[in-house]
Amino acid sequence: MTTTPTVYDVAERSGVSIATVSRVYRNPDSVRAQTREKVLAAARELGYVPSGNARGLASRSTGVLGLCFPDYSDPDAESEAEAGVGDEPDDNAAMLYSDQIIRGMERAARRHGYALLIAASLKSGPETLVAKVAGRVDGFAVLARTVPTEELEVISRRRPVVMLAGPREPGELDRPVRLDHIQVANADGQRELTRHLIEDHGLRRLAYVGSAEDSPDVEARFRGHTEACRAAGIAVADAPDVRVGMMTQAEGARAAATLLDGPGEHPEALLFANDQMAVGALHTLEGRGLRVPQDVTVTGFDGIPLSRMVRPALTTVRQPMRRMGEEAVELLVRRLNGQENKEPESLTLPVSVVRRASCGC
Amino acid sequence: MTTTPTVYDVAERSGVSIATVSRVYRNPDSVRAQTREKVLAAARELGYVPSGNARGLASRSTGVLGLCFPDYSDPDAESEAEAGVGDEPDDNAAMLYSDQIIRGMERAARRHGYALLIAASLKSGPETLVAKVAGRVDGFAVLARTVPTEELEVISRRRPVVMLAGPREPGELDRPVRLDHIQVANADGQRELTRHLIEDHGLRRLAYVGSAEDSPDVEARFRGHTEACRAAGIAVADAPDVRVGMMTQAEGARAAATLLDGPGEHPEALLFANDQMAVGALHTLEGRGLRVPQDVTVTGFDGIPLSRMVRPALTTVRQPMRRMGEEAVELLVRRLNGQENKEPESLTLPVSVVRRASCGC
DNA sequence: GCCTATGGTGAATGCGCTTTCATCCGTCGG
DNA sequence: CCGACGGATGAAAGCGCATTCACCATAGGC
User: Fold this and answer.
1) Does B305 contact chain A (CB < 8 Å)?
2) Which residue is nearest to nucleotide C10 (CA to C1')?
3) How many other CB atoms sit within 10 Å of the CB of residue A109?
4) What does the mean pLDDT of chain A come to?
């Protein structure tokens, strides 16, 4: 690897100008076949690989879309899993959320001729994410509040940005940042699920487990739950019955214990704001000899693969995460094709209640 | 979006030179705090986002690593899944192979300060992949034979490339392309698993199901199987007992049926070259009222999450896919840090037999 | 009080490519 | 036989940044 060959080298070797070399790659038909072959041969001999940077710089576009997502990784769980001790259910399942989005975006991006640049937010350097992603892509998606609002504000003035889940309009109330936005019908889904438990299964004593973080998604889910309860004349508190720190299996197991150990009769149904926690609860219940759904009903939210693998299979609300990734790309592509100054769009994807064994269906 | 601001605009607005603006981003400490603030303020006002392209061009590196993987997508399965009809087990599980690698690479890349550019191979334009990925990254990994050997040959002369799984040295025999290479101990794993069935469970009539494609991985697994059989004095054919086209659940189910319907006593154990097929076989067996493992033993290979969710849980060989992704990044990073002209490395990652219910453990 | 460090800054160059615009040559109509 | 015309190619001007190198001021050192 002395010095990597450039258009100049290829041009010289094939006896043409750099403009022609460029044409061979960008618009082969505009070059005489014979000339083209000469150039390609020279390129092959030299091991010429066009510089994406130079190309992007000169043409003012990269052909790459980006995705920023939060740093879910738990270093401890990670190393433990790597060590090969036991199966790593939590980790595998937990990742699927962002994985599905990646998958969806990748596929849609490919259809439109884009590649996908992914980066998890690093809490390190100040402008790390901006530099790493925003500067290298034509547009990108951000998972919830991965990127500081202020940065988003600056970037979104120059590049299409679509926010996935999370708040509709981040930023101060007086100066909101308006972005394209895609979310799922969290409230609708949970409302329907709760309604199902109440009306179809005749359950009345429901307990809801949400998260402590300020998550618009979880709030919306709880709101749906509340609405369904109110509609059925069931009293509900203003806040979830239990709030956990992280929405993991371990926390779900703990929350279940808390609810069962509470005063009075235990709830007939434990509703969790995600599947992870619900699965954790299943373990707790099994450990205590309580049968699901005969003794207690358990439900989740998300529809991760794990939810249908556990016994009993989990009744949950399926989120179309892959579709969300795809829609994000579609939106970005639309923006890049001349819709720059249209008003921000907000898309709400429908969810579906998946009735499985854990609610008695 | 009139014209996007550049260093020049920021420089002018803050009354400094472009060199200083550049310093503010690349090496903040080398600029007086007061000057720095001025610059950052101007940048904020203008909505300045440094151009990754220009940066990469000037500094001759991108800070991005790449991954090319095959286009697994099955459009039909896809749309069906999106339509929401039923759960989509096959799809979810099938993707995990590359997802795990992505995850591993992403994480390792992040640790080293790189972002990850992913692209599935498109059979379209000639130099698509090269242009899209190779030109934009500092180095990249290729999953098996995703990229035409000839392209790889050219690219690898200029960029670190590591091949994941697949052949050790692609290319013509007389002119092999030597790349860094990471694989798993396919033969070891299968040998150990087969040995386990023979010695620990006393099974003798084993049937192996592989794939028809020319896959070095599957070949290696079958070789391990063969060795274990020979070592135990059991006769085996030169080829798998059944070869399927794609290694899917459906094909696995079909293969199981074929084996059970064969002449004479049916095999005591069905060994599959991956988990997908084994899971499919489980369905077939259940449908016929055969108990696993009492009537038939079933094993897989890969250790995908699905393998432990099914009933009975599948005995299999776990591949450290995530680790493979991580090692790929480590290798690339090492190359990028001055090991350019070292001999190609080949790394074989250990696998582990996971004994679960489907073999009687 | 002169000379040398030292830290902060600006001028200028080049990274490798795309993209007009101009040029050249051969061809065709008159 | 001449000018117009069209296709293939070359010349040259950036694209936005990093990076010497030179420069200037100030701070010490003698």
Assistant:
1) yes
2) B17
3) 28
4) 85
CA distances from B33 to B16, B47, B103 (A): 13, 21, 39
Structure confidence at residue A131 (pLDDT): 66
Nearest CB to B135 within list A52, A159, A308: A52
Q: E strands within A111-205?
A: 115-120, 139-143, 161-164, 180-184
pLDDT in tens, B224-253: 999 999 999 999 989 899 999 888 888 999
Q: CA-CA distances (angstroms) from residue B168 to A104, B344, B348? A: 31, 10, 11
Q: What pLDDT score was predicted for residue B205?
A: 93
Q: Closest approach of chain B CAs to the CA of A64, in angstroms? A: 8
Q: Does A75 have pLDDT greater than 50?
A: no
A111 touches B at CB < 8 Å:
no
Pick out residues 33-62 of chain A having their CB under 7 A from any atom of nucleic acid strand C.
48, 50-51, 54-55, 57-59
Identify whether the C-beta of residue B159 lies closer than 8 Å to the C-beta of residue B134: yes
Confidence of residue B215 (pLDDT cuts 50, 70, 90): confident
Q: Find the farthest-apart pair of alpha carbons in chain B and give their distance in angstroms, rounded.
A: 90
CA–C1' span, A256 to C20, in Å?
Answer: 70
**Length A33 CA → C22 C1' (Å):** 23
Q: Residue A93: what pLDDT?
A: 46
Most confident residue range from A176-185, A308-317, B38-47, B126-135:
B38-47
For residue A139, which phi and psi values (nearest 5 degrees)? -175, 160
Phi, psi at B96, each rounded to 5°? -60, -25
pLDDT of residue B2: 64
- pLDDT at res. A82: 34
What is each CA distance from B152 to A114, B137, B184, in whole angstroms? 21, 14, 21
- The shortest C-alpha distance from B170 to chain A (Å) reads 17
Burial class (CB in 10 A: 0-12, 13-18, 19+), A237: exposed
Q: What is the pLDDT of residues B325-355, one digit of tens each?
A: 999 999 999 999 876 667 888 999 999 999 9
Task: Give the position of tokens 């620990």.
Answer: B200
CA end-to-end span of chain B: 65
Please indicate whether, in this complex, the C-beta atoms of B306 and A310 are within 8 angstroms of each other: no
Supply the DSSP string of A287-322, one letter for each residue.
HTT--TTTT-EEE-SB--HHHHHSSSPPBEEE--HH
Strand arrangement of the beta sheet that strand B206-211 belongs to: B242-244, B206-211, B269-272, B297-299
Q: How far is CA B48 from the centre of its chain?
A: 37
Nucleotide lying nearest to B48, CA to C1' measure: D16
Helix (H, G, I), strand (E, B) or coil at B204: coil
Contact B269, B298 (CB under 8 A): yes
Q: Per-residue b/e over A131-159, b at no fewer than 16 CB within 10 Å?
A: bbbbbbbbbbbbbbbbbeeebbbbbbbbb
Kindly list the residues from chain B whose CB atom is less than 8 angstroms away from the CB atom of residue A80: none
Do residue B305 and residue A309 have CB atoms under 8 angstroms apart?
yes
Q: Give the HSE-up count for residue A25: Cα atoms under 13 Å, Cβ half-sphere.
A: 24
Give tens-digit pLDDT for A180-194.
999 999 999 999 999
Question: What pLDDT sits at residue B90?
Answer: 40
